[in-house]
Amino acid sequence: MRARGPAGEVAVKTYQFRGKTGRAAAEQEATMETELEALRRVQKPREHGSIANMLHVLPGRGATHVVLQYCAGGTLKRLLDKGTIAEPAAAPLLAQLVGAVAHIHAAGVAHRDVKPSNIRFADGTLATIKLCDFGFAVPADQRLTKTAGTPLYMAPEAVRSIAHRGPPVDVWAAACVGYEMLHGRPAFGGCETLDSLHAKIRRGQFNPFKCGSGALRGAISAGLTADPAARPTASVLLEKLVSAD
Question: Which residues have a catalytic role annotated?
Answer without folding.
Answer: 113
